[in-house]
Structures are given as C-alpha cells and as structure tokens.
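Q: I have 186 residues here and want to know how they pack in 3D. Can you give me a structure?
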Amino acid sequence: AELRFQQALALDNPDIYYKDRDYPKIYQLYQQAAHRNHWKAMLNIASLVLSDYAVPEHDPEVAVRWVEKAMQLGVPDAYDMMGTYHQNGTIRGGDATSAYAFFQRAAEMGSPSAQTFLGYKIAGTYDDPNGEFWGNRTIGTQMLECAFAQSYGLAAYRLGFLYAGEYSVAEKTRARTVLQEGIKLG
C-alpha cells in the first residue's frame, strides 16, 4: 500500500504542470493503496474524485465513502474532511452545526488543521452576532498552541498574529518567536 501511495505521490508532483500529470494513473495507484487501508490514499482519492482533474469518476458519493472508510479507521483528518463536506454542501443536509461537530471531533483526536480552524474561530475577544467568530480566546489560543506544537504552519501564522495583537511585551515576544518558527514551517 505504501509503495503504491508513494508512486502516486511521485506522479502527482506539484513541480510538474498539472496538465502534464497522468491523473488516471495517479487515481489507479491511490485506489490500489486505499483498498489496502492506506488512509492517506483514501483521503487523496476522495479529493481527486471531487476535483476537476481527468479521473475515472467524479461522484461525490464515492468521495464520501472513502472518507467514511478512513473515519472507521479512526483517522482524525478524515473527520476534518467530513466536516468540510458538511460545510460546503457535499453532504445533503449538511450545515454548519454538523460540520462543527466533525471539526470538534477531529480536533479532539489531534488533527492540527481542525485545531487551527476551530482555535482561530473561537479566539475572539467577543462574540460576532453574524457567527464568524466566537469569544473564547483562552480555549482558542490553547487549540492553536496545540496545533503549533505539531509543527503545523498555518497554526503558527494564526497564533503569531493573535499574540501580535496583544499589548504585553511577553506576548509580543511570543508572537515574534511563533512567527519565526512558522517561517521555518513554510
């Protein structure tokens, strides 16, 4: 499974112009790895199915089934992806409430992307009546710190700017440190 996954990654190289990539072959290799319970291949094939690339199928139900299979394996990023599917309407009847339940589960399981998303959304100093963010800065900061501790670059970006907006010298210093580490993370 890992060999097939690595072969697919090599063909899906971002240094190769996307129109020059062999997406049917990439799809086939990811599918072979996914059938052997390679969770990263499952999530990649789900993304390919929903993409505009020339792959054999573009059925959202297929993408959802692959993500559900990864969820059954206990993969935090699968819960995060399912939250995205609920949020963007890929799942019929999905809404922000169901999406946030999946994001919360992913964050609890340790997904740095879910922790960053939720941490940023709840790190406000007050609640936004339109629902864009909520005022729970302490918990939001803790979630961002947890994602940053996992070397997640976007968390460093969000956390650094959160600290930069504070007034104390200690928090400004922390902001500089976090942002410098974020640069190393890309």
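Q: Anything worth noting?
A: The CA atoms of residues 64 and 79 lie 11 Å apart. The mean pLDDT is 91.
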